[in-house]
């Protein structure tokens, strides 16, 4: 059974890591015939690296649905991993890709959505809530007997990426603080991006009589990290991993916005998404973990917070002595 995979937005970290895993891990790469990386920036370093690993890199020019349909048909893909790009027009671009995949006759679709989107309010967390609309588009194809796209769908609602905590490396290194606008008491369960990529790889390569493996087909997989953490507990995990005292500082949303603006080159839409998620934490809507799907799909245990910080110790370990508590 052939499996020709197309992954969108491979210039971004999520798309890149999923594609890299499929191309380099023996248990996955032998399950696919080809991998196409769709990108709005074919000259990006990530696109070039994937090309060297064996991916077909195809420019994606959003805005004209007919051309996007033609692009997808040209790839010959039977499976698409739809990742909304880090772009101000994220929703429009992802919506266009969903419709184009339907018209191009793609059978299997995996959407990378966002955990918490169902708790988000349109007026308070619009960047989170728009993922509900994308899910509706993808799942709506299930009710159309005239298109193959709805035949084998899967949605991964990815929790807050633990890698977003690395945006505060400057404060961690120089001041020994982890500044987050999440309040003092509510918790969330950040998940390592590598864990999301692993589940996606299993889904994209799993095979059954209708496309995806029947254990994955039609599933709504909510993935969070394995531990609910307050800001103080995250700082404790970081302290344990780095061997240095680390403190949590509850900052205001305004200050968080300023920090993101001054310290990152993220697209504005991604900054807004992160701030929306922090808002959800402050409202107490992230006080849960969801690891069942991860265990069922991979047979493994997701990355614990202290293990995550250990993995990035080289980036986070302070360059000067930290203040004592």
From TrEMBL:
GO terms for cellular component: nucleus. It holds the Pfam family NmrA. Residues 4-279 form the NmrA-like domain. Signal peptide: none annotated. Transmembrane segments: none annotated. It comes from the Eukaryota. Keywords: NADP. Belongs to the NmrA-type oxidoreductase family. This is NmrA-like domain-containing protein. It comes from Chaetomium strumarium.
